[in-house]
Amino acid sequence: MPDHMPDDLSAAGRDLRAYTDQLRPKHPVVRNTNGEWVLLRHADILAAALDHKRFSSQVSRFLQIPNGLDGQEHTLYRTIVERYLSPEAVEPYLPTFQKVANELAANLPRGEVVDAVNDIGAVFAVRAQCAWLGWPAKLEPDLLAWMQDNHAATRSGNHRRMAVVAEQFDDIIRSVIQPRRASGDAVPDDLTTKLYRQTVNGRLLTEAELVSILRNWTGGDLGSIALCVGVITAHLATHPELVMRIRDGSDAETEAIINEILRLDNPFVSNRRITTCPVKIGDQTIPEGEKVKLNWTSANRDEAVFDNNSFNPDAHATSNLLYGAGKHACPGQLLATCELRIALQTILATVQQIRFAPGEIPEREVAPVGGYRRVPIVLS
Fold first, then answer.
1. Distances (CA, A) of 289 to 6, 286, 294
2. What pLDDT, in 10s, does the model give residues 304-318?
3. Positive or negative, the Cα torsion across 60, 123, 338, 152?
4. How far apart are the C-alpha atoms of 254 and 288, rounded to whole Å?
5. H helices within the chain, ranges in order?
6. Residue 227 in contact with residue 125, Cβ under 8 Å?
């Protein structure tokens, strides 16, 4: 191993954005205390994301549909999933998301401290996702509590604790799909029912496949949307000029601003791969069968690509890896973008100013979670 490459680094308890900024200029790849190789530079991460032969996505011991699959199997399931996430499929739900945002914004207190992550982002994410999937509103307290437990478990690094929390979420999903299985045709005509009736290779999806897909759509997205709202709100509190640009801008301009804010502070931290053969990154050769992390947070702050991290939505759009790249890019990109835009536009239409709560500062999340744990703001 080259002497200049730091080995067995731990990000535990650190702000990942600041830590990778510190490492990236000198080290294209580092090895963490879990024995994983972490890629930090944009060019290397993009190359690995596009190299489906040398970097396999079948890393987890759990079923992950579709992006934990490779080759034709991935293509088969990805095609099924994308039917529900295409522009044509998402567009009818936009008024529903708008209604959720309107009700949330109307009930937000003015002149009092509100946490943008948990009081706004998490609540909007749960209500929007439940409305999209046709899940009962009574699940909201359970889902909000699960989001808190999931972040705490992830933050702890305790694999047993994370497994317990993951199983709790699978139980929530089963509580939705099992009554539909028992009721036959007497079920609501919603997206979850459509997925329940979905076939693959001439057969219905198994319960394990349904749980995997719905876990990916909800378990991952709920926390991510909440973290994104926190990051966006914190940025707007320190850049009030962007508030006017969003109020006066088109949907496309607002989405570009959102994507650029999230590029600078990407809460979608990383995805994993496993090498299928020895791979050379810089001066380091990673052996076959090694776990590799594609650190999107670091890639999206690479000074060599993003002009010293200036704020420039138009110039940086084509290089932005917020939702990944290649065949395994996030299939829910459109859904997440629409939800974030609608939530932001609606809130900004009902308030004059967003500022940090007096005497309080945003609290960063720590590895392996990105973004903020808490963003105390006052809406006026």
1. 21, 9, 16
2. 999 878 999 999 999
3. negative
4. 43
5. 16-23, 42-50, 71-82, 87-90, 94-107, 122-133, 140-156, 159-183, 191-196, 207-214, 221-238, 241-248, 251-264, 296-299, 313-316, 333-350
6. no
Q: Which residue has the tokens 């749960």?
A: 126
Please report, for residues 190, 195, 259, 303, the alpha-carbon distance to residue 182 in angstroms, rounded to integers and kept in the order given.
16, 16, 42, 55
Asked whether the predicted pLDDT for residue 7 surpasses 60, the reply is no
Q: What is the dihedral of CA 228, 231, 236, 238, to 10 degrees?
A: 180
Phi, psi of 307 (to 5 degrees): 50, 55
How far is CA 380 from its chain centroid?
29
pLDDT classification of 270: cutoffs 50, 70, 90 = very high
* pLDDT tens-digit readout, 39-84: 999 999 999 999 999 999 999 888 999 999 999 999 999 999 999 9
Diameter of the chain measured on Cα atoms: 66
Q: Which amino acid is at 224?
A: S
125-161 confidence digits (pLDDT tens): 999 999 999 999 999 999 999 888 888 888 877 888 8
CATH fold for the domain made of 16-352: Cytochrome p450 (1.10.630)
Distance (Å, whole) CA 67 – CA 212: 11
Residue 86 Cα to chain centre, angstroms: 18
Residue spans of the domains in the chain: they are: 16-352
Q: How many CA atoms lie within 13 A of 127 on its CB side?
A: 19
pTM of the predicted model as reported, rounded to 2 decimal places: 0.93
Q: Residue 372 and residue 175: Cα distance in Å, rounded?
A: 31
